[in-house]
Amino acid sequence: xxxxxxxxxxxxxxxxxxxxxxxxxxxxxxxxxxxxxxxxxxxxxxxxxxxxxxxxxxxxxxxxxxxxxxxxxxxxxxxxxxxxxxxxxxxxxxxxxxxxxxxxxxxxxxxxxxxxxxxxxxxxxxxxxxxxxxx
Amino acid sequence: xxxxxxxxxxxxxxxxxxxxxxxxxxxxxxxxxxxxxxxxxxxxxxxxxxxxxxxxxxxxxxxxxxxxxxxxxxxxxxxxxxxxxxxxxxxxxxxxxxxxxxxxxxxxxxxxxxxxxxxxxxxxxxxxxxxxxxxxx
Lengths: 135, 137
Fold this sequence. Notes:
The complex is a heterodimer.
Chain A: E1 8-13, E2 22-24, E3 28-41, E4 52-66, H1 72-83, E5 86-93, E6 96-111, E7 119-132
Antiparallel strand pairs in A: 1-2, 1-5, 3-4, 4-7, 5-6, 6-7
Chain B: H1 3-12, H2 15-18, E1 23-24, E2 27-28, E3 30-31, E4 44-46, E5 52-55, E6 63-74, H3 79-93, E7 103-115, E8 122-134
Parallel strand pairs in B: 3-4
Antiparallel strand pairs in B: 1-2, 4-6, 5-6, 6-8, 7-8
């Protein structure tokens, strides 16, 4: 059965790397978890068809939330961006934290339209692999 | 979401607007029920119920987007009064952070006033679009 996207949440480490504290990014409106593999070309003159092998694996995370400057998750993102540090994140499904990753914060955008709700959007790149969490 | 009290407090708490409207049992004639009491005297204001009320939720927080009418009425010899009432009501609400118990107001934007004349009264209507998020617990 398909899940409701509202049941999939992005959590940020608002503690330290040594003593992490994972909190749901507040006022979250959307999150996208993307994994991709580049092609490694294994084609040859033997065949007209392109042959490929799995190449570089990469993963990105992007999302959107209402802009709440006092929100701990947003502050953790901003600190990582401005300090040039990585941030630990987790993904949860149905309130169960399922996996975590260390990320570089690539962009944070604050959208401030006149007489509309201010929004924050962000893009992260995963460093290495996602680590599955065992309960 | 007690928007009726929030809007009543704004309108009935403004001396300029109160000076333009009648009183009802000693209180400014701002009614949050529809219709206004039969023994109310013009000029008065009615703001009852929402024109539309939709969810404005995030994954972690609930919010509301509400359109609410503020209807101003004056006697048929009170065109200036009703125009002034409506403009003042708009001024009090438009782009203001009104206090709604249990909510944080994000946006209040007004449209109007537009004419809503009736056979025995001049009417003007100001519509407020309100976006408010529930307080974080």
